[in-house]
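Quick one: structure for this chain?
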Amino acid sequence: MSIVDKQTLADLNVTNSRYKDMVDFFRLYSYARWAGYVV
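Got it. Here's what it folds into:
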């Protein structure tokens, strides 16, 4: 495995975790809005 491959994998992991954080945020946000509308 070359250094470039490792760097690419690291970048993918960072991108993936940021994407997951964003998804979690939107999930919480939409749930809060939904709860706000219902209550």
